[in-house]
Amino acid sequence: MRILLTGSSGQLGQALRALQPSQIDGEPVELIATARCADPAQAQALGLLLPMDLADPEACRAAIASHRPDWVLNAGAYTAVDRAESEPELAHAVNAGAPRAFAEALSELCPSARLLQISTDFVFNGEQGHPYRPEQELEPLGVYGASKAAGERAVAQVLGAGPEGKAMILRTSWVYGPVGQNFLRTMLRLHAQRAASGEPLRVVADQVGCPTSTAGLARACWAVIAQRLSGVLHWSEAGVASWYDFAVAIGELAAAAGLLDHAALVEPITTADYPTPARRPAYSLLDCSTSRQRLGLSPQHWRAALEEVIADVGA
Q1: I need a labelling partner for 61 at 20 to 30 A (CA). Which of 16, 55, 71, 275 fits?
Q2: Of these residues, 78, 132, 144, 283, which one is catalytic?
Q3: Are 78 and 150 a contacting pair, CB within 8 Å?
């Protein structure tokens, strides 16, 4: 089974590679790992196939023509939420143009192949007070969410995202892991700085969702591929948190693990206290009940998953 993976040097891509099964249904798995990487030596060390610029639709089509994969696992994305407001063309090229190019090339050249498109809770507006179900209408607030919604619509239009389709859209939320740029690593740095200076760490408490570890999300992705699923599913860890809750837990668990001498004091603030270029959904909890049944996976509570990731950071 040949699987073309995008974004393989990113936080999710590295987790997908680490958890790659050797076989699926008795078939050996060949992972074609791609990423945009300017340093050839680093690319070689990571085992990446270059180039793969997701902003270039011709590069996406050429990769399909060259490798004729059974699956495209599109884990690469433009994820700079605030910068997307000033770079809408680039955000849409990567998050919408690349999925469409992959889908069209698969439809033309590999009609039995499938595409797993990773998407986001930011496709919803956050105005409801209960978890979003996979079938709900999309209403993104900013450029990033709009670009990811456009990517979803593109693959669904070309390959179909129903029971007989060839596309799976897997939405997730608040992704973090032991490597890369993410909230966990930022908070570890800020906890150390603020604890040393005695200054409090101020974190937004009125945006609610659920953190998702890259390891948990990677397992869900491999389960989708193993079962050849199509449609739209949600995946996150269990439970609910605000960014404030997440920041407090990071400090507590990192201190307990010896990564910090002690945690900084964390003060809750409102979204209005911390203005950003992009609007964010105030409530973006995803309903994952159907996903857990279809994938046959039991989620961890987000705090238990966080403890495991912090242990991995300290290893």
Answers
A1: 16
A2: 144
A3: no
Lowest mean pLDDT among 48-62, 94-108, 205-219: 48-62
Contacts of 113 (CB under 8 A, 6+ apart): 68, 69, 70, 71, 72, 106, 166
Question: What is the model's pLDDT at position 215?
Answer: 96
The pair of structure tokens assigned to 20 is 């790659």
Q: Is the pLDDT of residue 52 over 90?
A: no
Q: What angle do CA 211, 212, 213 make, to 5 degrees?
A: 125
pLDDT beyond 70 at 197: yes
* Cβ(248)–Cβ(303) below 8 Å: no
Q: Which two tokens stand for residue 48?
A: 């990446």
Q: What share of the chain is helix, strand, coil (3-state, %, to 5)?
A: 45, 20, 40
Q: How far apart are CA 196 and CA 192, in angstroms?
A: 6
H or E element: which one contains 195? Answer: helix 183-197
78 an active-site residue? no
| Integer angstrom CA distances of residue 287 from 29, 80, 131, 184, 279 | 31, 25, 5, 23, 22
Q: Which CATH number fits domain 2-173+214-236: 3.30.40.230, 3.40.50.2300, 3.40.50.720, 3.40.30.10?
A: 3.40.50.720
Q: What are residue 270's phi and psi, to 5 degrees? A: -100, 165
Give 36-50 pLDDT, tens digit per residue.
765 556 656 655 555
Backbone angles phi, psi at 80, to 5 degrees: -80, 90
How many CB atoms sit inside 10 A of residue 267's CB?
A: 14
* Main-chain phi, psi angles of 176, to 5 degrees: -150, 160
Residues in a beta bridge with 31: 3
SS3 category, 30: strand
Among positive and negative, which fits the CA dihedral 84, 85, 87, 89? positive
Q: What is the CA radius of gyration of the chain?
A: 19
Domains in the chain: boundaries: 2-173+214-236
Contact assessment for residue 310 and residue 250, using Cβ atoms and an 8 Å cutoff: yes
